[in-house]
Amino acid sequence: MRLSKITGFHQDEEGHWVAELSCGHQQHMRHDPPWQNRAWVMTAEGRARFIGMEIFCRRCEEIPQP
Ligand SMILES: [Zn+2]
Fold first, then answer.
1. Number of helices (H) and strands (E), helices first, in the chain?
2. What spacing in Å lies between the alpha carbon of 20 and ligand 1's midpoint?
3. Is 23 exposed, middle or buried (0-12, 13-18, 19+ CB in 10 A)?
4. What is the pLDDT of residue 20?
5. Average pLDDT of each block of 10 consecutive residues along the chain (66 residues)?
6. Residue ranges making up the domain that contains 10
7. Residue 40: is it exposed, middle or buried by C-beta count within 10 angstroms (0-12/13-18/19+)?
8. Phi and psi dihedrals of 17, rounded to 5?
9. What residues does the ion ligand 1 have nearby, CB within 5 Å?
10. How far is the CA of 36 from the centre of ligand 1 (A)?
11. What does the DSSP 8-state code read for residue 36?
């Protein structure tokens, strides 16, 4: 498991929020209740709280580490 820090957010063309990670990858932060409940991502204040937060990067896990 690889941890990456969230460095910022942007919206994709469908309006979904995407986290930008310190490893250079991006990860969707979908707010899609009741399956994925991420109401925090809908507000600027909520997103600001997650800047610098460490999350597991799915992309990094798929890439075999040397
Ligand atoms: Zn990554």
1. 2, 4
2. 9
3. middle
4. 98
5. 92 95 94 87 96 93 72
6. 3-62
7. middle
8. -85, 135
9. 23, 25, 57, 59-60
10. 21
11. B
Residue 46, domain CATH: 2.40.50
Taken as a whole, the chain contains a residue count of 66
- State the pLDDT at residue 66: 62
Distance 24 CA to ligand 1 centre (A): 6
Predicted pLDDT at 61: 85
Residue 6: its H or E element: strand 3-11
| pTM of the predicted model as reported, rounded to 2 decimal places | 0.83
Phi, psi angle pair for 4, to nearest 5°: -130, 150
One-letter amino acid of 49: R
- The tally of domains found in the chain comes to 1
